[in-house]
Each structure stands twice: as C-alpha cells, then as structure tokens.
Amino acid sequence: MIQEIASDIPKKEVNSSPFRQAAKNSFFKLKSLTGEIRFQKLILSMMLLCILLSMPSETYEIIRKTSVFGPFPICPQEPEPNPFVVTEGLKPQVEFWKKIFSEYTADQIVLHDSCYVSVIYDVIDTGSAHFPNKNEASEALKAAKEKYESILANLPWENPPGMNKEQRRIYSLFKNLPESPHVKKKDAKDRIRLQPGTADSFQNGIIRSGAYLESMKKIFAQHNIPEQLVYLPAIESYFDPFAVSHAGAAGLWQFMKRTGKHYQLSVGNLVDERRDPILSTKAAARFLYDNYNMLGSWPLAVAAYNYGVQGMRNAVKSLGSEEIEDIVLNYNGPKFEFASRNFYAQFAAAAEVASNYQFYFGEIDVQKSVEVTQLYIPDFISPETLEQYFPFKTEELIALNPSIDESVFEAGNFIPKNCRLNVPVKYKDILTQSYAMIPDSLRYEYIPPGKGCRVRKGQTLSEIAGAYNVSLKTFMKLNGIRNPRMIRVGQMLKIPGEYMSLEERKTPSEPASEKESGDKPGKMHCVRYGQTLMNIADIYKIPVTSIAEFNSIKNPQKIRAGQMIMIPES
User: Is 59 a residue whose pLDDT tops 70?
Assistant: First the structure.
C-alpha cells in the first residue's frame, strides 16, 4: 500500500549527505529485519504518534477536570425543571426547616443542636396559655437549656448500657449521625440553640405573595432564571415589601442600599425602589443571573445570596468541591456560621412549603394577583392632578406603590420627578395620551432652597414645618428625623425648596425693583406651591401681619397654591 502510493509521486533529485545516507541505510536495514507487513504496521504506528504529539496542549485541557470560575454560560436556554434537588446529606436540614415554616408558631421555641439541626431536644410553648408573662417564659427557656446542657455534659457516650431513660433518649437522637473534624457529638452541650417557629409569619407571607407571584414568575422566565427562586423572599422578608432588617436591608429581596443602587434601583427618603415588588424582582433576577454566571451552579448562586460570591469561591477552593452538600456539611471558613450554613436548606424548604401550601396549611385565601404597568413621571406632579387626568384614585396608587412614601400623596405635595409609578395594567393604552393632556401650569420643577433653617430656643419641629407650609411628616422625611422631639437649639435643618410650574418658568419674571418696592396699592400675588405667607412678606418687604390683616387671613399657615392675595401699600 505504502509502496503503491509512493510510486505515484514524481521523484526529485536531492543532494545526498552523510546524515541522509545513514538514515537511508537504517531504513532499509529495518525493513529487511521486520518484514513487509510488520514494517508497514510500524510505519503506521509512528505516523499516529507523530499526529498526537503535534496536537496543541490545550486539547488535553478539554478532557481534564478542573475547578475554574466563570464567566460561565449564563443560563441555559431552557433551565432544568429543578436544579435544586435535595441530596441525602441535606435532607435532615431541609426537613427541620419545613417544620419551622409549617408546624411551629412564634410562641413555640425549638431547642435543637446547631450543627445536627434534626436533633430536637424539646419544644416549649411560651404562649399566654402556659406562661402569664414574658419573664416567666424566658426563665422556663433558660431552665430547659441548662437542663439539656447538664444531660449532655454527663452523657456516657462510650457506655450506652449505663445510661438512664432520658440519657438513652438523647443518645438515640445522635444515632447514625456522622462526625466530622469540626463537629463532634461529645461537644453537643455547647451547641444547644433556640429557634422560634415561623409558621404564622410564613403563612401570612404566602397570602401576600399572591398579589405579585405570577408577575415575578414571568420576570424570571424572561431572564431564564429557575422558577423556584421566586420563593426566596419567603425566607428573606415573608413577601413583605416594607420589611427592613437591623442591617438596613429592605424590601422583598432585602437589598442593601449599595446593592440596590448597583442594580439601578432608586434609593432615597421619599422613593425607595427596593420596596417595589416588580422593580426589585427585576433587579433580583439580574443579581442571581450574575451569581450563576460567576459560580456556574444554581445551588452555589443561592448560597452566595447570603454568603457572597467571593465567600463561595473560597469555600469551593478550600474543599476542592463545587457540591453544595460538601460545602454545607464540611466548610469551616470565616463567618460561615449558622445563618450561612443553613441558608440553602432554608430556601429548599421554603420553596417546597410555599409552592405546595395547600398540603401544609390547607386552603387559604391568598391575595388576588395584581397586574400593573408603569407610568413614567418626567415632572413634579401633584396627586390631585393625576386624579384629574387619569381614571385611577390616589388610594389605588398608594396600594400599588409601596416604594413611594405615603407623605408624597398628601395634599400639597408632589410625586417626585422621574418616578416610575405602578398603575393598573388596564389603563396601559391611555397613559401617554392622558399625561400629554396635563398643561404646563400643573407640571412643576423644583427650585432648591438657599440656606437651611437654624432651630431657635423654644421652637418645635411642628412650628418650623408650619412656617414653611409643609406637613410635619414631610419635614421629618426631608431631614431624616424619626422623633420630632429630638431636635436641639442651633441645629441646622433642610428647608423645602420652591416648586415652580413650567408655565411660570417660561414667563419672564417681573423686575426686582417692582416686586420689592411694594408701593403699588392693590397689587395681586398668586401663591405658588410651597410658598408661605412669610416668603411672600419677604418678597414685598412688609410684615406678615399686614398681609394677613389686609386679606382677612386668620391663620397665616392656611394658604394654598393658586390663592390670590392682595399686597397692601408699604
């Protein structure tokens, strides 16, 4: 075969050399020694070896198993039906949290082992039927904890036959449980933990979830996020948009301010989009999408929601495993404590209970699904104006927009510029046309104030707010004050700026000399939004009392935007 192919190739004269001649001699010698067939097989083997050696080294990387972090392909086009299968090693944890979420209420305190959470020593009901006050309940819990600490401290682990009845009961709870270098049964006395049940709160969360769950599922489907992840708020906030943690995390998805802003959510005193169920869910989809992209596994992406991406990377590197079970049961890294260690199991349990709530709670009336669309507000607009030009009521807007502080909807206030307002989806087709009908005289811009206001001796926050024709609640929001009594003499307070209609901005203002002279009898002044009688008196350089008496105004704080006021002679 080789000879036939070679015979078809034209021969070419080449200069011989000692090296070529030696090679040629070796070639014919090898051929004569091996025989024709063996020689051909040898040549084929050598050719194959040359091909393999000439292949690039990256070829071997393809088949070699490595632990390399992203970027991975973000999400498969069609995610697995359930990428959160609970393995045997995690089942005890998941079953424990299912009981916490569905069986035990807030009054029932579960005494358990913090590592072997399925080891439950006792459940104590601290309700009023058993204890008349909280102090007695606390004492009972303390006594129970000390009791089991004593039993565990004196438990003869190596001598089961010598145990009494209660010791045998406790010993049996640990039967067949594996130990690890970090978790030993004999140290159980130091691991007793008290966990209150949450079945009542969890059920209320399921009721609330009905309003937005379908919309959340649609958002996750658009991002190719596994549907089970819509139940993550069940453990984060019980689906309460107003939930706030001690660390400052807020909303359904418990975003910190920095994280919310990173995912394009507006975070401020009057508008906090972390509390918006729709906008925050879109941000959560991107957040989880990023976690998956960096870690390459949905279980790791869930764990990173609590422990962080870098924390999970460290765990994988430390153990040399990307399996969530290995990490949960064996990782002992910094700050990977009870909450982080149990977060994935809590999620798996919550998803099971929430998605099959009829099995765990029976038939309950969940809130009716709410479908909304968004109305972009490019100007400062009063709630009264929206009611005038749109078919929905202010009460409806308050219910659909938990991200907007209720004080915004009070009379005389404005919905902030660039706000994204949730409105019923049935009005979707008329929004643009209706907004275009609002005249410039009812669209406002905000003119920031100059200096602030310094608190004088004897002043109250209510008096100061009234002087600027602003509600106390709005004034407190503006200055971040929670207790109106907690102000001090000399404290600088922010004062509201002035709202000017677009129509006024287009109209040239009167000369200052004419405004300030105030020497024309019968001059009329139209009160603008945010103006007080004190502001107007300053413009015309006359006392407030003169304007009030001239216009028969009994209460200087009771003037309204659009009101015409006569300015007396100086």
Answer: no
